[in-house]
Design a protein that fits this description.
By secondary structure, the chain is α/β, with parallel strands linked by helices. Helices cover 39% and strands 15% of the residues.
């Protein structure tokens, strides 16, 4: 057991390095989108839809997604509907807790969902997804081998890699003084009422545990009880919890700093360039999201068509434009480098999106805590309700 953290850190370091090398590699020959061809479908935004490559056989007429808010470019949804003639229905969640609660209570009408790593493990353990038939996913080869297995799915049998990233601290360098440098700094009274946090109990409890030198995945009830007063103080200092669009408060000036996912920080910095990303000295949180086909999915053929189309490099590069997290799709990065050089340069040169290898290796992962999860839920409910 003592070798596991070292192994995880080593794999994480190699993964980040391989991603950076892949991003700098010579671009592959990928058909260009954006130039209209006769008969090629075009979305309402004017985006020219790439043809499916390959086109999979589908008889279903609709697809039901249960996904994060603000996480799939509308052009991808529109293009899939246009090229396959399949209606895409989407329901949204804004927290992992919300997603798991709904699915575990018997929501059977969904085909695909997007769990984060620790929820990935939890869903596999409770039998919610079905195993993938990878022969129906030829475009899986577009994923960088270093990211081919989603954290939480160690055998790679259930989850298709979607995005990866970090959860860390962002602040406005023109208005926030002193600048935060550690999770422990968030308790500075100067920051009270100026912070927006994602509404993620495991992250907020986890960073509080880390600030006390404790394991963010502890299963010891005494650890959770010990941090309760400190967690209470932090929650009361947060102006807003928002997992739908936390960048909105930063852009509007309703908050000047916060704990966010990396793409939300990048999108805020596009509007207000003084927003600065900080890797706390104790280590940020790393995460990885994947698509899963649910065990009772009613439209499995459409689910495979959606996954394979999304994996195309000339489709998935849109993530860099709309939701610039850390992109594990090697073909998408190659496409962007060749066809969207300014967007690619923004992505590859920013530590918000292209996490330095040494920071990635120093990051924490939130794990499935099994039977200890009710204790986390109770702590979060008590603290937020006080």
């Amino acid at each position: 057991m003592d070798d596991v953290p070292l192994l995880r850190r080593t794999v994480a370091l190699l993964a980040a390095a391989v991603l950076a090398l892949a991003a700098c590699a010579a671009p592959a020959a990928t058909p260009q989108s954006g130039g209209e061809a006769p008969g090629q479908p075009v979305t309402d935004s004017g985006f020219v839809c790439p043809e499916p490559s390959p086109r999979l056989p589908v008889t279903s007429e609709e697809l039901n997604l249960f996904v994060w808010t603000e996480y799939i470019p509308q052009d991808i949804v529109d293009c899939f509907e246009l090229v396959y003639g399949i209606k895409v229905n989407q329901d949204y969640y804004s927290s992992t807790d919300e997603m798991y609660a709904k699915l575990s209570q018997g929501a059977l009408n969904y085909d695909i969902t997007q769990p984060t790593d620790y929820a990935t493990a939890l869903m596999i353990r409770t039998g919610l997804p079905q195993k993938l038939d990878k022969e129906r996913l030829p475009n899986l080869t577009n994923i960088d081998p270093a990211f081919a297995v989603v954290h939480g799915d160690p055998t790679g049998e259930y989850a298709v890699p979607y995005q990866a990233g970090t959860t860390s601290i962002v602040y406005n360098s023109e208005t926030v003084d002193p600048a935060p440098a550690a999770w422990a700094d968030l308790w500075n009274p100067e920051y009270a009422g100026r912070m927006v946090f994602i509404d993620d109990s495991r992250v907020v409890i986890g960073l509080t545990l880390i600030s006390e030198g404790l394991d963010p995945n502890t299963t010891d009830p005494a650890d959770l009880e010990a941090i309760k007063p400190k967690l209470h103080d932090l929650v009361k200092a947060v102006e807003l919890f928002d997992s739908d669009s936390p960048k909105t408060a930063l852009i509007a000036g309703d908050a000047e700093m916060g704990v966010l996912w990396n793409a939300e920080a990048m999108l805020a910095s596009r509007e207000v360039p003084s927003y600065t990303w900080v890797f706390p000295s104790e280590g940020q949180f790393n995460w990885a999201d994947g698509y899963m086909i649910l065990a009772e999915a009613p439209h499995v053929d459409a689910a495979y068509a959606w996954l394979n189309y999304s994996l195309q490099g000339d489709v998935f590069w849109l993530m860099l434009r709309d939701f610039p997290y850390s992109n594990p799709n090697r073909a998408a990065l190659e496409y962007a480098k060749a066809n969207q050089p300014e967007l690619y340069a923004e992505y590859i040169n920013s530590p918000m999106t292209n996490t330095p290898a040494e920071n990635w290796a120093a990051g924490h992962w939130i794990e499935d805590v099994g039977e200890a999860m009710p204790a986390y839920d109770q702590l979060w409910t008590e603290v937020k309700g006080e």
